[in-house]
Amino acid sequence: MSTSKQDAAPFAQFKSMQREMWAGFGANEGFTTMIAGDLVTFAQIAPGESVLDVGCGTGVVAVTAARAGARVRGLDLTPALLERARENAVLADVEIEFMEGDVESLPYPDRTFDVVLSQFGHMFAPRPELATSEMLRVLKPGGRIAFSTWPPEHAMGGLFSIMGRATPAPPPGAPAAAPPPQWGDPNIVRARLGEAVTKLRFSRSSMNIPALSPKHVLLSIEATFGPLKTLLARLDEQHPEQAHALRSEILQLIRDNTEGNVLRQFYLLSQATKKDPA
Fold first, then answer.
1. Closest Cα to residue 226, out of 16, 12, 20, 13?
2. What pTM was estimated for this model as a whole?
3. Which domains does the chain possess?
4. CB 217 within 8 A of CB 211
5. In terms of pLDDT, which residue wins out, 52 or 24?
6. Residue 241, class by beta-carbon neighbours within 10 Å (0-12 exposed, 13-18 middle, 19+ buried)?
């Protein structure tokens, strides 16, 4: 199905907002680079394999896979991040084809890739059933799908929960996007991949963020994490008291997940093999 059809109402505006709100996420590249190696290792990327990095951002996973000898393509909604991804590929002296696009309507033929990867990318698609179907569609039978996601019970999942309580509900009858941290629940991952895969396995690790103080972390997150930046900007203008309460709640979440000068953000790694329908 074409991107234009998939982006038709009701989610066209949602995706347009996503393109804009993630433009500043490149400032987190240093942290996401460290864990890109975990995903590439967990996915068992081998030289010569064809790999798609979905929601590639600044290309840290794509570059890591290319440096391991894979033939890589990367796709993301946000042009600003793709521009940085291309710069990273040049600096790393690897060839990667980057393209603007949507995981709910991937612009690739069926059975194109040996491996489909996503590091905190596909989980933001509003309709998980479409994202899952598309990633499996472009994967060859016997190929591997692997991704990193934020579990609902840890720091980032807690942040989404706090933000969700401060976000107005959609109008009656309007569809709602699925919460991204659902992808961090192994039971939900198992259900979404369903009978299309085999050899499903999981692992966990953590992203360790320097934390001189909780307010330092909050300032950084507010400046670079698009959904929070957008929400706080609206609340600062319309409901300052709610903005203050939201910041206070996030500060406590940061305190609860900080040890010494390190904020630990645990994440889930999932990998499965696509069955051959024949």
1. 20
2. 0.91
3. 3-152+170-208+266-274 (3.40.50.150)
4. yes
5. 52
6. exposed
